[in-house]
TrEMBL record:
It is a multi-pass membrane protein. GO terms for cellular component: plasma membrane. This is Competence protein ComEC. Its main location: membrane. The lineage of its organism: Bacteria, Pseudomonadati, Bacteroidota, Cytophagia, Cytophagales.
Length: 645
């Protein structure tokens, strides 16, 4: 594989680099990248019009620079749009009018929904406004998209994470344009319902009707949840137990409508072409209809990054068939990514986007290498061997990313996928006709019963595999450098036979040296004796490290908060989930810790150092570090602190 043979694969990194540069820098005026692109384009045209060639390097450099600047420009346009703008007037409003954007999602004690603000009321009266609010209500009737409701009081801004390595929930929602949340209970008034039937909500209403058909025609309640997720991408109502079963067996991608599902739809739609002898114009017309149906399914299932990627790729493949050409899969993959980034530059930060493209790249790159290890003697073994090769290739490519984000690895992913993927194919073979013909009295009921039975078998097998010993490796870690190393080794393996082996060996050595250097720096920076102190204003948790031993002390820190606020930091530094509790002596209201001879007053949340003085004290949060002066005490009212002894 020569990198020069895939132009869009060369263009993509420069476009991404421009987006990343925009995220690192703030408030770049739009006229700067716009003017720079215009100047670069003029320079490119001048070079192209010259009779004597100035060499290929200069025009190529200008082209790549234009792509970098384009990524910067698109990202800045998005940052300066309403997507990122926080309406601070909403934070101080007395009340506000907002339009319901989706159907209710049931939670344990309330219903979740999303509101689009129309107007706010303050001391000066009503005025137009905008912004999105994530709300939780206890209304007797469910909300319907298009309803306008009046909410008393203002919402609160979603707080940023305060602890290191904590999940950035506020950033996650901000990329969706959501900056506020509010529990409204029953303190709201439905102000207007005239827009419920507006064309804007036809798709949501239609999707809701299809979910209703699934709930009516599929007998088993658990099968209903899986059918809604697998066929329509509606996985919000999945039970935690069944979701964990699929996650721990490495088959969670089955429940999220993805490229696999689009591929199955594509295969079903192209199947009739094998038995039909169509003229050239008829074949082109049929293939054009296939493209329309693929994108209809993509829109219907929620337009997730993996679905858009698959729909774009299959559409381009189909256009190639219409023109009787076979375009490069790598070029199509990179081109589809560029289209998505131009439409929404922030998509590169979505885990679904990253996993989807890495998985497909791994399949394209590694699957042929694995598949040729063995030539099966018959078609049945050939099918399962090809499926095995695809599963291994996708898992090899995605496991560094999965470990980086989720810190788990399913040991029996291969066994699970070999069984569950064919079953899910069968479910879709019956599920799509079920949705189409559900209105036919006996046929709809029969197909619903078949779908329910197949999903029941699928769930039973998934749970059985989940019970295998050692089925899920947890609390795994990998650094960013380690992740790049794994991917680089896979690329070197893929190019070993056709590439320059000497260069590949040198590249491997350089990569190992960089990775080893990163490991050495991390080990050097780790303190042998330190305390990590976490305080949320109500309680305090201390994680203490002495050499290879780890201790902990919890003083009124909420237990339910530890899993998402403290445990990510323990995983990052490879510390146990449940450290040994340290010893403390209580005198009046003061706790004394002999481990480093310091005392802590829970009432004032103040630490007094004893005979052992700290070498350094740092206050650190999700992304910032601040050195503090060393004194006889530390006031830990709220935040996270690192004390090195």
């Amino acid at each position: 594989m020569r990198f020069a043979d895939f132009p869009f694969l060369r263009y993509l990194p420069f476009l991404i680099a421009g987006v990343l540069f925009s995220q690192a820098k703030t408030d770049i005026p739009l006229w700067i990248p716009s003017t720079f692109i215009a100047v670069l384009w003029i320079a490119y045209l001048i070079l192209a019009s010259q009779k004597e060639s100035s060499g290929q390097l200069t025009p190529a450099f200008l082209g790549y620079l234009m792509l970098f600047t384009a990524g910067l420009l698109f990202s800045e346009i998005q940052k300066k749009g309403s997507y990122y703008v926080v309406n601070h007037n909403l934070e101080y409003a007395q009340s506000y009018l907002a339009r319901v954007e989706k159907y209710d999602l049931e939670k344990p004690n309330s219903f979740e929904n999303l509101l689009e603000v129309i107007a706010v009321s303050d001391s000066l009266g009503w005025k137009k406004s905008k912004g999105k609010v994530l709300i939780y209500h206890k209304g007797k009737l469910p909300f319907v998209p298009g309803q306008v409701i009046l909410v008393e009081k203002s919402p609160e801004k979603i707080p940023s994470p305060i602890f290191p390595n904590e999940f950035d929930y506020s950033g996650f929602l901000a990329r969706k344009g959501i900056h506020f949340r509010q529990f409204i209970g029953e303190k709201f008034v439905i102000f207007d319902s005239s827009e419920v039937d507006h064309p804007k909500y036809w798709l949501s209403n239609f999707r809701k009707e299809l979910v209703g058909i699934v709930q009516t025609k599929v007998p088993d309640p658990e099968s209903q949840q899986i059918a809604a997720a697998l066929l329509l991408g509606q996985k919000e109502n999945l039970d935690k137990e069944i979701k964990n079963a699929y996650a721990e067996t490495g088959t969670m991608h089955i429940l999220a409508v993805s490229g696999l599902h689009v591929g199955i739809i594509y295969a079903i739609l192209l199947f009739p072409l094998k038995g039909l002898r169509l003229r050239s114009k008829q074949k082109k017309g049929y293939l054009f209809a296939v493209i329309i149906l693929i994108w209809t399914y993509a829109v219907l299932t929620g337009f997730s990054p993996s679905v858009v990627r698959a729909a774009t790729m299959f559409s381009l493949f189909t256009v190639g068939q219409m023109r009787e050409r076979k375009p490069s899969s790598f070029n199509i993959l990179a081109f589809s990514a560029m289209i998505m980034i131009v439409i929404n530059p922030d998509v590169i930060f979505e885990v679904g986007f990253q996993l989807s493209y890495v998985a497909v790249a791994g399949i394209l790159l590694i699957q042929p290498l694995i598949a040729r290890f063995w030539i099966p003697p018959n078609m049945v073994l050939e099918y399962f061997w090809q499926l095995t090769a695809v599963s291994i290739a996708a898992q090899l490519a995605t496991f560094p990313l999965s470990v980086y984000y989720f810190h788990i690895f399913p040991s029996y992913f291969l066994i699970a996928n070999l069984v569950i993927i064919p079953l899910s194919f069968l479910v879709m073979q019956f599920g799509i006709p079920f949705l189409v013909f559900s209105w036919v009295p006996f046929l709809g009921a029969f197909l619903g019963w078949v779908v329910s039975g197949l999903i029941g078998v699928q769930n039973w097998i998934t749970r059985a595999i989940q019970l295998f010993p050692g089925g899920n490796l947890e609390r795994l870690t990998i650094t960013f450098a380690g992740m790049l190393l794994v991917w680089s080794i896979l690329i070197i393996w893929a190019n070993w036979e056709l590439g320059n082996r000497r260069k590949l060996v040198y590249s491997s050595i350089c990569l190992f040296l960089i990775w080893s250097g990163d490991r050495l720096v991390r080990e050097w920076n780790q303190s042998a004796q330190e305390m990590l102190l976490f305080s949320d204003g109500k309680g305090t948790l201390m994680d203490l490290k002495i050499g290879s031993k780890n201790f902990s002390w919890n003083e009124n820190f909420p237990t339910e908060q530890i899993s998402f606020s403290i445990d990510p930091n323990r995983i990052a530094f490879q510390r146990p989930q449940l450290p040994e509790s340290t010893v403390a002596y209580k005198t009046d209201s003061v706790l004394t810790f002999p481990i480093w001879d310091f005392s802590y007053n829970p009432t004032s949340q103040k630490i007094h150092w004893g005979s052992v003085k700290p070498k350094s004290v740092r206050e650190f949060s999700f992304s910032k570090f601040k050195e503090l002066p060393i004194s006889d005490s530390l006031y830990a009212k709220s935040g996270a602190f690192q004390i090195v002894f």
